[in-house]
Specification:
Elements (H helix, E strand, L loop, with lengths): L1 H17 L13 E4 L10 E6 L3 E5 L3 E4 L5 E2 L4 E4 L11 E4 L8 E6 L3 E4 L3 E3 L12 E4 L1 E2 L8 E5 L8 E2 L3 E6 L3 E4 L3 E4 L5 E2 L3 E4 L1 E2 L8 E3 L7 E2 L3 E6 L4 E3 L3 E3 L11 E3 L2 E2 L6 E4 L2 E4 L7 E2 L4 E8 L4 E8 L35
Antiparallel strand pairs: 1-2, 2-4, 3-6, 4-5, 7-8, 8-10, 9-11, 12-14, 13-15, 15-17, 16-19, 17-18, 20-22, 21-23, 23-25, 24-26, 27-30, 28-29, 28-31, 31-32
């Protein structure tokens, strides 16, 4: 019965409003509220709008009036978000944001080598202030550097308090007869620790081996320390090919050893050749023998153009090949011109 009476009353009020004597509720204005709030308003009733928390008046009239004809003279109020002041600066860091208005969030981060002291984000509150203060970026520091076993610091310049900052560098070396493995330099990293600390190891090599057809400097049977050196030579008539010295390397092996190469016997005694920049006959070379790596340049005849051209032949560990263009002097060679005395060809054959 009570519900029916209420519905009848509402119907009557609405009918009364429809007759033009009262106003229904005024229209909503974005981001605002109005007072007083009623179901129906009498002519000349006034409502006042105000912006909700976090928003402020931008423009327009904040009052609406119920007219005698039963409709509203509406408010023209416009509300805009409250703005927070520009944050920062953040020394040795950065602040990222897209907006500075109510409910916007800004984010804080530090440059490499610095760490954030404080909160990493802040929100613009309804009061126009930030929910958290701008943090600080404090420099990352490293403690006294670690010294590896059998190692030592040869460059270290600490800052006040015997600390080092991001990207500060130290340099290491190893004690005598110990070998450094890794980088000799270490750097204070962005996380506050030294990176790439090297190792110092005791490296020994077994006695080096002899070389064929050669000899080695005095080398007793014992273990050899890192960088110890032995030298090599060749027995005559062999010649040394490669480095004369070899040393004990960090992999506990000897560096490259030389090889003794055999000389070459030249079988063209009457040939005129170039040897060591000098024109000579092969039989004038001692024993008609040249060393490994030596070059003999032969003169060959171009019969068509009646001129001479040269061809090189190398001694390679006892192997020597005479150029095919070379012709041994025959019985009637006294009637022909030696190619070494002919006019050089303008272009090699």
């Amino acid at each position: 019965m009570l519900q029916s009476s209420f519905l009848i009353g509402v119907f009557c009020l609405l009918s009364y409003a429809a007759a033009g004597r009262v106003c229904a509720r005024p229209r909503e204005v974005q981001y605002s509220v109005y007072r007083p709030g009623k179901v129906l308003y009498e002519p000349r009733d006034t409502v006042t709008y105000s912006c909700v928390p976090g928003y402020i008046k931008d423009s327009g009239n904040d009052k609406a009036v119920c007219l005698t004809v039963g409709n509203w003279e509406h408010a023209t109020l416009k509300c805009k978000p409250r703005q927070c002041p520009k944050p920062g600066p953040l020394a040795n860091g950065k602040i990222e944001y897209t907006d500075l208005t109510h409910q916007s969030v800004i984010y804080f981060s530090c440059n490499k080598g610095y760490r954030l002291r404080g909160i990493n984000e802040s929100m613009c509150m309804e009061t126009g202030t930030w929910s958290a203060l701008v943090p600080t970026c404090e420099q990352m520091t490293c403690p006294y550097p670690v010294i590896p076993n059998f190692g030592q610091l040869i460059h270290y310049r600490p800052r006040e308090g015997n600390i080092s900052a991001y990207l500060d560098m130290v340099r290491y070396s190893c004690l005598q007869n110990y070998v450094l493995f890794g980088n000799e330099n270490a750097t204070c990293g962005e996380n506050g620790t030294w990176n790439e600390i090297p190792e110092c190891r005791d490296v020994k090599c077994q006695r080096p081996t002899e070389i064929l057809n050669g000899y080695m400097s005095f080398s007793p049977y014992r273990k050899y320390n890192y960088k110890e050196v032995v030298t090599y030579g060749c027995n005559p008539p062999y010649s040394l090919d490669g480095p004369r010295s070899s040393y004990c390397d960090k992999d506990e092996k000897w560096t490259q050893k030389p090889v003794c190469r055999a000389p070459c016997h030249v079988t063209t005694p009457k040939a005129t050749v170039l040897h060591n920049g000098r024109k000579t006959r092969v039989d004038e070379i001692a024993g008609q023998q040249i060393q490994h790596g030596d070059i003999l340049t032969y003169y060959c005849k171009n019969k068509i153009d009646n001129c001479a051209y040269t061809v090189e032949s190398h001694c390679r560990d006892g192997n020597f090949t005479v150029p095919t263009c070379y012709k041994k002097p025959g019985v009637f060679s006294v009637f022909s011109t030696d190619p070494s005395k002919m006019t050089p060809c303008t272009q090699q054959a």
